[in-house]
Design goal:
globular, 6-stranded parallel sheet, alpha/beta, about 220 residues
Length: about 220
């Protein structure tokens, strides 16, 4: 797997590893009428929303297991409070490293990305990749100097649970996919794929681009 050719991989949590439509926080906010994710009154709704969406995206468990077996440094980032991330993580392999904000400025500031790499013991940005569907997180990765891979069909830009996405007609899926892909490229993503299952082929392409001297 080409991931071993890279220094570290960082993933968004919702809309990338779990929660296909990245709907946990927006749904909880809609039900509660609150906008502050750290407000204690929001936590019950947020926990319930997260538990309903604690389903790994197709191919994610196998991908994470390969990264662990190959000892490729990797971690996830998200802005959700810990009470919401716990039920989401129950669907993923144990021991998946996390990076908490710990005083970092909100995305798209690069602080949280650099902090995550520091916690992984990574000493150089060379060969570091961020994979996410959230535009603000991708912008943070770009600001931090990482290769950034956008996910077009499984994040907030499409906003649909996996079953709802699969229930769309091919024409409807293609329209949403194209719109999200164009938006992510306009943002500055170095590559855009539909979902994490396409990451190995994407990393092969990035490895070739790196071998030709291209830099993020």
């Amino acid at each position: 797997m080409p991931a071993s050719q890279f220094t570290a991989l960082l993933f968004g949590l919702t809309g990338c590893l779990v929660d296909h439509g990245a709907r946990t926080l927006p749904v909880a906010q809609q039900h509660s009428g609150l906008s502050d994710p750290d407000d204690p009154a929001l936590l019950p709704a947020l926990k319930a929303s997260a538990a309903e969406r604690a389903e790994p995206l197709p191919g994610v468990v196998e991908l994470l297991q390969r990264l662990q077996a190959q000892q490729v440094p990797h971690a996830w980032l998200d802005e959700l409070p810990e009470a919401a991330t716990r039920p989401l993580l129950d669907a993923l392999p144990r021991g998946l490293p996390a990076s908490r904000h710990n005083g970092a400025r909100p995305w798209p500031a690069p602080d949280a990305v650099w902090q995550a790499l520091s916690e992984l013991g990574v000493g150089s940005l060379n060969g570091c990749v961020l994979i996410a569907s959230e535009p603000r997180l991708l912008q943070a990765g770009l600001n931090a100097g990482l290769w950034c891979v956008g996910l077009a069909t499984c994040g907030s830009l499409c906003g649909l649970a996996l079953g709802d996405w699969q229930a769309l007609s091919a024409t409807e899926r293609e329209k949403l996919r194209v719109q999200a892909t164009l938006e992510l490229y306009r943002l500055g993503a170095h590559s855009v794929i539909d979902h994490p299952g396409e990451l190995p082929a994407c990393l092969e392409d990035l490895a070739v681009r790196r071998s030709k001297g291209e830099k993020p």
